[in-house]
Amino acid sequence: MSVDMSVAVGGMRLRGPVLAASGTFGYGTEVPLLERRALGGMVSKGIFMRARDGTPPPRIAETPGGMLNAIGLQGPGVEALVRDFAPQWAEWDFPVFVNINGETAAEYGELAARLDAVPGVGGLEINISCPNVEQGGLYFGNDPRAAASVTEAVRRRTKLPVWVKLTPMVSDIGVIARAVEAAGADALCAINTFVGMSMDLNAYKPRLSFRTGGLSGPAIRPLAVHLAHQAARAVRIPVIGIGGITRAEDALEFLVAGCSAVQVGTATFVNPRAIAEVHDGIAAFLAAKGMGSLSDLPRYLPRD
Amino acid sequence: MFLLDAAITGRRQVARDMFVVSMAAPEIAASVRAGQFVNLAWSGGPLLRRPFSVYRADGDWIEIVLKAVGQGTAQLLAMTPGDRVSCLGPLGHGFEIGAGPKSVVLVSGGLGVAPMPLAAREARSLGMRVTWVHGARSAGDLCSEFDGDEVVWATDDGSNGFRGTAVAAAPGADLVLACGPNRMLSAVAERWPEALVAVETYMGCGTGVCLGCAVPLERGGFDRACKEGPVYRAADIEWSSLPSHLSYAVTA
Fold this sequence. Notes:
- The complex is a heterodimer.
- Chain A is 30% helix and 19% strand.
- Chain A is α/β, with parallel strands linked by helices.
- Chain A has one domain: Aldolase class I (TIM Barrel, Alpha-Beta Barrel).
- An eight-stranded parallel β-barrel of chain A has the order 3-4-7-8-9-10-15-16, surrounded by six helices. A four-stranded antiparallel sheet of chain A has the order 5-6-14-11, with no helix packed on it. A two-stranded antiparallel ribbon of chain A has the order 1-2.
- The radius of gyration of chain A is 18 Å and the shape is globular.
- By secondary structure, chain B is α/β, with parallel strands linked by helices.
- Chain B has helices at 26-31, 71-77, 116-125, 166-169, 182-191, and strands at residues 2-15, 18-24, 37-41, 50-53, 56-58, 61-67, 84-91, 103-109, 129-136, 150-155, 162-163, 175-179, 196-198, 214-216, 222-224, 231-233.
- In chain B, a hairpin with an 8-residue loop joins strand 3 and strand 4 (50-53).
- At the A-B interface, strand 5, strand 6 and helix 8 of A face strand 14 of B.
């Protein structure tokens, strides 16, 4: 039985519910063993207006069931992205979202304007949740007014779909979710990494040069399901679930918890075929349950 | 690049606590170059894959060399023939050994011996005279396998060969290839800025997308040990920013 896996997310129709998460797929141009058919979409590595070197090594540290990273949004800057990558994206059969970053709300707005009419750019994911930059990032994500002002600055400068990626490092994600919904976001992505730390017991100092890093991987999945669910309960716009998905069952948990789609990240590092396996596993699950469409999947989403 | 379900085919000891493990990986064996690596995962293993330089390759098998430095490597060493690992590779850019040089010296410290058998094979096929220089803490720590027209041993305690480092023991040559702890490689860079060195970093994906294996460059910025590396011209690395020692044990 063929299953209709397409989903509507913020005014867009995606052919499947599984996307590649920002920072785990580069710009999509060097991904090994890429199985495009399984991709509902892709989110680019986070980009700033200008090129950034990123943080010195060590940048990653494995922890039980997860990993800490502090890459520091290394990247070529928006002009190189538009020149080198967007023309390739324009040829692809799935939308590419650009993860945008700034140190001020105005910088996010400038990036949105620069990317607005660029062929190959299918939408924007506002990153107000990166824990690994000194300025911006997380600062905007844990204050509802700052989060709304960044969202507005982007919304005013683009006709592209605008998604906002939320941080888990807040006391009530529903407050932030409602603030960015009111500011014009088309969808929410929940969640970015948790801020964590691990110590090197030989050197008596943090294992990462940035001291702290973002924790991802299966270790955070139940936390992420809860936060994505809380966000979904708080708003009417779609929520894209992110956090520790390695198998179809993990993705289905987010979908049942009220998410419209999911992003797979760290799993791709381990298994280049993770996205295809998650996509195919969801379809197999739905077929086994006698559902002809992903929209038939029951959701647990009592309204607040 | 191939993603293979590879059967372990054997294991042998080559030094104190140091083992060579072989596995069936035909596509990788046929295409791997000296200095390239494979990234391994296995059922019940750690979350992230573990990168290993390919030690030798022939026919349909490849070999890696390792010590039990943490839980993951201990699990690998506990495997028996027929056990399977997920093997992704070959990855990275290896040693560019072009025609021209008449002699090559291969300088390795400890597990840095890993890429040298393939390097010796490639250099010899280009008609070079191969000098094999290998150093370790003590005689029992030296890898017992070697491949060179001339062989030089070095030990910190003088229990075999030259007393001191492999770098100090090595003669000159038209081409110098080196692999070992990063602090050894920075000494290589001082003596032979044009040497080709294979660096060691923490690694996430091994395929260029996570940017976790940053190598600081002398011209500024970082690139990826897994993609542009792990082999670099020694003078191109900004050695003071590259961690000189990796502590492997994963907090668990």
